[in-house]
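Ticket opened by: R.M.
Priority: normal
Category: complex prediction / small molecule

The reporter submitted a protein together with pyridoxal-5'-phosphate and asked that the result be attached to this ticket for the collaborator who will pick it up next week. Submitted input follows.
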Amino acid sequence: MIDTKRIRGDFPILARKENGQRLVYLDNAATSQKPRRVLDAIAHYYSEHNANVHRGAYALAVEATDAYEAARTAVSRFVNAWAREGVVFTRGTTEGINLVAGSWGRANVSRGDTVVVTAMDHHSNIVPWQILCQEKGATLRMVEITGDGRIDLADFGRALEAKPKLVAFPYVSNSLGTVNPAAQLTKLAHAAGAVTVVDGAQSSPHLRVDVRTIGCDFYAFSGHKMLAPMGSGALIAKPELLEAMPPYHGGGEMIERVWDDRSTWNKIPHKFEGGTPNVEAAVGLAVAIAYLEQLGLEHVAEHEQQLARVAVERLSQIEGITIYGPRDHRAGVVPFTYGDIHPHDLATILDRDGVCIRAGHHCTQPLMRRLGVAATARASFYIYNDVDDIESLVAAVRKAGELFRVLAS
Ligand code: PLP
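Result attached by the on-call engineer:
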């Protein structure tokens, strides 16, 4: 079980008061807060071990390298990667997907090919493929969603008839909360001969993820949404794919030999980690992983799903509220609109009561068009949220509704 009271004590920022009230942080799909253990690990790294990695012959550099590479092992175990050499540190999901598009995509996608994404993808899993397809003269095919916010499997099947080179989809939607059947989608895509990319930005923080069980080829996630520092994350890939792929960024560390006119490449994963890496981010990510594993990802998922159920139930009792996304197979994300109150206005008013929610298109404009809205308000939960937070949200939403009724009359 998740003991939110104890957990809240681990997060210094949650002691902060907002307009004299308890901070109700419900924007976890955008980024999570960080526990003291992660903050301390960063300070400890800089106070005790900081040096540039992989190049030094002195003790500090060896310690920094050990810490960085230990973090790679932690990530590898966390997602059950095919090999620790298949873990490339990135700035986050966006960079991971751009790496696949820029390297695997440039090498393997040609004129006339098809790349498949879904209408619920985040811009990070759409725009890199648009850029690639435009450059190569390939077609980008967007799979439709059903009325209740799932990937339309019939349309997915139709998209696969084009024998796409690559299929990309989110494990969990940041705008709907839908948990997609990642293993099933991967199997179907593979049967059509495609390579698969899973956007794990919203799954790694909240679910036990096993990339081998999903069976995908690439899996990208961000550390900052799962208690780790900003600028942390990884791309998990099948090693044989990474071996065959050309480099993404050229520079130090990713080379073996450099001549005047050409170079040879370092072993994987270093071939994809040109330049000085963000060691502090990797160190913090390893500590965040340990924190989540101690809680148990199954408990984390159960806790958030329970909060989402309560939030859907309580918000549905307010007249004029529309909730988006499926009733079941939902992670801790609850998107909603409230009559004709603009979600931005709603979020601004809620802030006065110390309630932080996100409003906007959530980097999913194609999805918003399909939902027929310009924006939604979104409450998203994590391990330190509890039912009191939902009560604060509901009370603040009701108050905002009254305010707007007065203003309109
Ligand atoms: N994919 C999804 C589903 C997301 O929710 C996000 C961030 O909100 C991203 C990708 C991009 O993640 P990042 O900005 O950490 O690279």
